[in-house]
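The methods section describes the discrete structure representation at length, but only in general terms. The central task, working out the structure tokens from the amino acid sequence alone, is never made concrete. Nothing conveys this as quickly as seeing an actual entry. For illustration, here is how one protein appears when written out as sequence plus structure tokens:
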Amino acid sequence: MLETHNLTKVFGRAVGAQESILALDDVDFHVAEGELMTVLGPSGCGKTTLLRVIAGFETPDSGTVTVAGRPIVAEGARTVPAHARGIGLVPQEGALFPHLSVAQNVGFGLRRLHPCERRDRVAETLELVGLAGFGRRRPHELSGGQQQRVALARAIAPRPQVVLLDEPFSALDEYLRENLRSEVRALLTRLGTTTIMVTHDQEEALAMGDRVAVMRAGRVIQVGPPRETYFQPADLQLARFLGEAVVIKGELVGAGTDRACVSCAFGTLPVAMANGCTGPCDVLIRPENIRIGDVADTRSPGLVGTVREQTFYGHDGLLRVHVAQLGGDVTVRVLGDHPHRVGDDVRLTVERSVSTYPIERAAA
């Protein structure tokens, strides 16, 4: 449905500029029809610039953007103006018109429709987002979540081919954010809307996206399903960005075969992705794939350590376990009602295939 090829954008090229910033660096990806693609990355990585180029608010220096096979940007030049692209945008914090009612906000992009058709479309869209009967209210009379629903309704009312979401839940509290993103995800899926959502929140990107595109320094470094992106990240820097990561040394055996495994302090573990490694390597293990057992059970493989710290989140928690054999601490994710306490000795085993990477070199 939507594709970008070799998209590049540099800020600060004007005469007299002290510094130029490469915001987009040869960005190349596609979003299938009906797919929800999340674009994840830290602040300043280029994800919002990418959204603005697709929406028509920025012009790239080079590259192309097509929607349903129609070029809207060709060779760095806008071929279709923003208002004619068939793209709906939900900006951060909604950006509703405070002097207009909810119905007027939603109908803002429908001015070409006959008044009766516009009224029906607004009512239909408000019902879709769960705000039937709210049409006469003003934005200040709504909660934060309701305002974001109005912003979404305004974006989908013209029935765009693509909807862009720019950090749409960042201003909401955690409970409301989780509930609203679940509702929005279900609505967009039901409508079959092709969607791109940018976020710096790793959990949000993994929970919302059919696929996740991860950006770093203006480049897309990995695109894939959430599970694959989390368990098989392109490099260790991305692994650490996506969540807690346990990294230890190992030796890859059987590289290039479907029986590749790695020998490490935890024993011999199956390898899901070798990343071109042969021989010595770094091994990525996620904390939730480490199991805690009885230290007295010598029949089990693994390592013995001592619980140094615990963090309680309610539904689950994290333990920091010092393992003398590794010369450091290992992070283990456990259920919230786990029985282990600081000072307990425990046995750690790994119960899932792992990914390996070329050994990280210390900075000079």
